[in-house]
Write a structure and sequence with these properties.
By secondary structure, this protein is an alpha/beta fold. Among the domains are: 170 residues, Dimethylsulfoxide Reductase, domain 2 (3-Layer(aba) Sandwich); 175 residues, Rossmann fold; 140 residues, Barwin-like endoglucanases. Helices cover 30% and strands 13% of the residues. It contains 29 helices and 23 strands. The strands form 7 sheets. A 6-stranded mixed β-barrel has the order 15-19-16-18-17-23. Helix 5 packs across helix 7, helix 5 crosses helix 9 and helix 19 crosses helix 20. The protein is globular and about 80 Å long. The protein binds ligand MGD (2 copies) and molybdenum atom (MO). One ligand MGD binds next to strand 8 and strand 15.
């Protein structure tokens, strides 16, 4: 997503799917993982939309779909190229849309020719007629919506997957339309907010990146000295360098060859706040790293699952955090809309809200004053001595995060929305009565206090003040081949066609206006996303244009290894015969500070010989994430109380395994888990499925006695991440948990 359009997130929203005529659900299981969102999909179905679910596992969503298409995991790019091949030869694409709004589609159509349908059928396991049928139905339905989630991202080609899907939707002209779009159903509560806030190792908040300009932008807003900030780091280079990721930090503790990527220093301490971490592949590496560190701290309302996995006996701290019921503030939903969450009860016992723990940490580290300075500044402006948490923090976010347009948001507006739920249409999100002219939660971008928010992104047929916009101009106005990247189209109420992002240097020329000397001085050297005043944005809105420009979506990312997405076999492929033709990426050094293996791992040996089964993983409706919270809830633990592996009876019986037997499942890293076999027709004969929601048993060893008195979960089990295969997305380092190989033996 991020690299096709420049932003991450869902383009439309859940209610908007009720306007779809066709919904392609690929690599997502909303019936289990987004049951409330699923209601909208079922409503669309009742209204006549055709629902197709493409998944290697016959999921609960597949059961509700009009059509289930079984795909071999890790081959979605090939499947979509098959569709594109057919769409191209049958001229089912939206030519006008492509010409006006898209750059690079000719190259995509050329690439699609390399995927004849019988070849695609061979790669994916999907019959030629099915590929044609899905392509035809989707192309003819106007509009069609596309939904994906982790079934597409947790692969070495995860980024290629998440690029080919918007490409398909652009070819069909479905982006920027009600009932269309790419709808990525996000994970945790507030995961959208967490990424907006920059809980990422490659960017400051608001997707500003880590460059000097970004640091300076935030130093200005935080009112701290840039030089002081730089001194927090070993060097300027380290300040601007992508950090470790959740998946790669272990290498920074364990592997000496990796220390060079981290200024020749091993990681010595780890603070875990709000993450299970037992859910990351190579759990044995996580354990080894936890054992080796000097200091480990968990900030969590529960006993974090890996706290019982590590053998360390000292310098391991559990700091009890308050739960969401005991805290308050803004949280972002999957549709980029923010909501206010009120505190339900005061924190119980000795637990404390996360921010209080972090304020104390900042104090011990010696920078509490700088950490809180902008909050005090906001209070001072309003004549207060003390800041109000979390309201002033929301103001700080809104004022500094202009790249995605949070400046129209405020604690006051969000509380009004929350207090007046009944004044918003549940399907369109449009406000009514006193809430007229705003959309529920002010989905970003929300450019100013008068802006309504943006329920559907990239709709250039409505005025900017109603949430209209073209595609963001994020990579210059010309492609390296000289092609103009600006859109020839105009937003309604505007005389200005495609234009670059608005800056202090170009505003007069682009908008055809004159700034006063005073205005000029206040915006000098800034752009729509930097600086401290909203003048550039307000002037753009007055001229009827979107401040981030009006450009074309690009299908070619010219500075990436795969300039356009292509199919590459998984590292541990179920079809080793296809590796020669569709090899994985070259090994990559310094990928989120780790030296990661790709081709050398794929070619290391004939993996399938030792590990003949394709391994799928996913979620259970009654458990969340690692299951720490839900397995501690009596009634949820009762629903799924033990870890299992779904296996086809034909496969199981050939291995002398009966339904309910204990089995060892061996992973390609030489690790193993002890689980119950569950006969299932939801998997094909070559695949098995493991839920990801268990922890507390480690290679057969029950760790329940390690939980402190009174904290034992009701259900424990082996973690799938113990045996999921080595492998990381080439661009994001997300682990390849959605396809790997394994071997099963009766215990
Ligand atoms: N009840 C419950 N709800 C949750 C969660 C939970 O743990 N429990 N977790 C939350 C979080 S953090 C997230 S990120 C979301 C995740 O939401 P989803 O992505 O929907 O979750 P998964 O079940 O992991 O995977 C979805 C589907 O992808 C399929 N799949 C696997 N490999 C492939 C492939 O190569 N191609 C295709 N097309 N499909 C494939 C799987 O079989 C599975 O049915 O759910 C959120 N909601
Ligand atoms: N095999 C396989 N592995 C996977 C996946 C898969 O599909 N297959 N999916 C991956 C994905 S998408 C995800 S998101 C991860 C799951 O992600 P995890 O982060 O491992 O899952 P959770 O159990 O939700 O972890 C949240 C932790 O935060 C704590 N917590 C809850 N509320 C608060 C709070 O207010 N403050 C603090 N400080 N802590 C809090 C909880 O007690 C828990 O320990 O799993 C990943 N791993
Ligand atoms: Mo997630």
């Amino acid at each position: 997503m991020a690299n096709t359009f420049g932003y991450g997130g869902m383009t439309n929203h859940l209610g908007d799917m009720q306007f779809s005529k066709f919904i392609l659900i690929i690599g997502a299981n909303p019936a289990v993982n987004h049951p409330v969102g699923m209601v909208h999909i079922l409503r669309a179905k009742e209204a006549g939309a055709h629902i197709v679910c493409v998944d290697p596992h016959f999921s609960k969503t597949a059961a509700k779909a009009d059509e289930y298409v079984r795909i071999r995991s890790g081959t979605d790019v090939a499947f979509v190229y098959g569709m594109l091949n057919y769409i191209y030869t049958q001229k089912l694409y939206d030519e006008k849309y492509l010409k006006e709004r898209v750059y690079g589609y000719e190259e995509i159509f050329r690439e699609a020719q390399k995927y004849p349908l019988d070849e695609v059928a061979n790669i994916t396991g999907i019959p030629v007629d099915t590929i044609k049928k899905v392509a035809r139905e989707m192309a003819q339905a106007k509009p069609a919506s596309l939904i994906w989630n982790q079934g597409l991202t947790q692969h070495t080609v995860g980024t290629n997957n998440t690029r080919i899907m918007p490409i398909l939707q652009l070819v069909l002209g479905n982006i920027g339309k009600n009932g269309g779009g790419v709808n990525i159903l996000r994970g945790h509560d507030n995961v959208q907010g967490a990424s907006d806030m920059g809980n990422l190792s490659d960017s400051l908040p608001g997707y500003y990146g880590l460059g000097e300009g970004s640091w300076k932008h935030f130093c200005t807003h935080w009112d701290v000295d840039y030089e002081w900030m730089q001194k927090r780091f070993a060097s300027k280079e380290m300040m601007q360098k992508t950090g470790y990721a959740l998946s790669t930090w272990r290498f920074g503790v364990l592997d000496e060859e990796n220390f060079a990527n981290n200024d020749n220093t091993p990681i010595k301490a780890l603070v875990v706040i709000g993450n299970g971490i037992s859910t990351t592949s190579l759990l044995d590496k996580t354990k080894a790293a936890l054992d080796k560190l000097d200091l480990v701290v968990f900030i969590d309302p529960y006993v974090n699952d890996v706290a019982v996995i590590t053998d360390r006996t000292d310098n391991l701290f559990l700091l009890p955090a308050a739960s969401q019921m005991e805290s308050s503030g803004s949280v972002a939903a999957t549709n980029r809309g923010y909501q206010w969450r009120y505190q339900v009860m005061k924190p119980m016992f000795e637990c404390r809200e996360d921010h209080e723990i972090l304020f104390d940490l900042a104090q011990r580290l010696g920078f509490k004053e700088e950490f809180q300075k902008s909050l005090y500044n906001i209070a001072k402006k309003e004549g207060r001595k003390e800041f109000i948490w979390p309201d002033d923090a929301t103001t700080e976010m809104a004022q500094s995060i202009r790249s995605i347009g949070l400046q129209g948001m405020s604690a006051k507006r969000l509380k009004e929305h929350c207090d007046n739920w009944h004044m918003f249409d549940k399907v369109t999100l449009a406000g009514m009565g006193p809430m007229k002219n705003q959309y529920y939660g002010l989905p970003w971008p929300c450019w100013s206090e008068k802006h309504p928010g943006t329920p559907v992104m990239y709709n250039d047929s409505i005025p900017v003040m109603q949430g209209g916009m073209g595609f963001r101009v994020n990579w210059g106005v010309k492609a390296p081949d000289g092609t103009n990247l600006l859109s020839p189209r105009k937003l309604p109420n505007s005389k200005i066609a495609g234009h670059p992002a608005i800056t202090s240097d170009n505003i007069e020329e682009v908008l055809g206006i004159k700034l006063t000397e005073k205005e000029k001085a206040s915006v000098k050297g800034t752009s729509f996303s930097t600086g401290t005043t909203n003048i550039l944005v307000e002037k753009s809105l007055q001229a009827g244009v979107c401040p981030y420009g009006n450009g074309k979506a690009r299908m070619i990312v010219w500075d990436w290894y795969d300039k356009i997405p292509i199919h590459r076999e998984p590292l541990h492929s179920y079809r080793p015969d296809l590796i020669q033709k569709y090899p994985t990426f070259p090994d990559k050094k310094n990928n989120f500070r780790a030296n990661l293996k790709y081709i050398s791992r794929q070619k290391e040996k004939d993996w399938k010989k030792e590990y003949p089964l394709n391994m799928l993983t996913g979620r259970l409706v009654a458990h969340m994430g690692t299951g720490t919270e839900t397995r501690s809830a009596k009634y949820l633990a009762e629903i799924y109380h033990e870890m299992f592996v779904e296996i086809h009876p034909n496969t199981a019986l050939n291995l002398n395994i009966n339904d309910g037997d204990d089995v060892w499942v061996y992973g390609t890293s030489g690790t193993k888990i002890l689980v119950k076999a569950k006969y299932s027709y939801r998997v094909d004969e070559g695949s098995v499925f493991l839920p990801q929601n268990f922890s507390g048993i480690y290679e057969g060893k029950n760790l329940i006695d390690r939980y402190p008195e009174g904290t034992r979960p009701y259900a424990i089990g082996e973690a799938a991440s113990m045996i999921t295969s080595y492998g990381f997305d080439y661009n994001t380092a997300c682990p390849e948990t959605k396809c790997g190989l394994c071997r099963i033996e009766k215990a």
